[in-house]
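Example 321.
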Amino acid sequence: MLIVSEEACGEVVGRAEAFAAIENIFAAMARDDAYNFPVVREAIGHADALYGFKSGFDRAGLVLGVKSGGYWPGNAANGLANHQSTVLLFDPDTGQLDAVVAGNHLTALRTAASSAVSIAHLARPDARVLGMVGAGHQAAYQLRAAVEQRPFEKVVAWNYHPDMLPRLAQVAEEVGLPFEAVDRERLGQTADVIITISSSFEPLLMKGWIKPGTHIACMGTDTKGKQEVDPALVAAATLFTDEIAQSVSIGETQHAIAAGLIADTDITPIGMVINRGHPGRTSDDEITLFDGTGVGLQDLAVASVAAKLAKERGKATEVAL
Ligand code: NAD
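Predicted structure in complex with nicotinamide-adenine-dinucleotide:
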């Protein structure tokens, strides 16, 4: 049995490996070769924490396992990431534990890879301005992965806590892009691709502010009640997601569904676009919206790559079961 630490994950899995793993697992899900099990997520009544399990089975890749963890909002004040998680991988032939893989770095990588896959497949080729809504732990990963998908020339950003923006500006500088803090309306009017990655419970972007042709990756809404965009904007966009069942229950489309503005049949799994069973964007004026809710199979996919590479490179600790 392998133990793969946060440090080892950071050494062996980068953005390229995560992108390939996520694109591959979304494609497998759309072929019904891989499926997620129902998610458990509970407020535990301690430390204000949300704790749960995400699990699934990739029959094609033979990856079985569970990610356990959640969100501890007080962690940042103590120098820890608010999201904490660990992935357990099991041998699908025997049920024996194969690996314990640290999940924090991998969660951020797989979440960024998810929006990056959506940008790669759905954004206009001439997209030049990236808009960021949110500037927390995930936002830096999101920005770095996004700028590899199109030749962006500028980043515009807004955050609920403006004091967090300089850290994101620093990331933009590191990837060689000018950065401008703007209000939300201007962000909508200037950005060609927008990533929302906040913990908002109300709409931050309104339909009237968004340019035709924009691609929006809604990444922050992963719980019932959370919300980042106007339901009218959701209804006006061509909708894609990682998994429809999660999108309509805990993802960004939950509000437009509840308001009767859209039906689940209006939403396409992005894997269908990857598999060329759906054309994706069909016009330059279309607004495309990807609802990235975060599925367990993403975690298993990157954890399995981490375990394989860490073993090959002598970065994993082997222990007897
Ligand atoms: P974080 O705690 O580091 O940052 C939170 C962000 O939300 C900050 O930008 C903060 O300013 C902003 N924010 C806080 N309160 C707000 C409010 N009332 N209105 C608007 N914005 C507010 O968290 P993080 O790790 O960066 O995660 C951001 C969000 O992404 C969370 O909601 C998290 O649950 C979600 N997430 C989704 C996935 C996925 O797969 N879709 C994966 C990981 C995290």
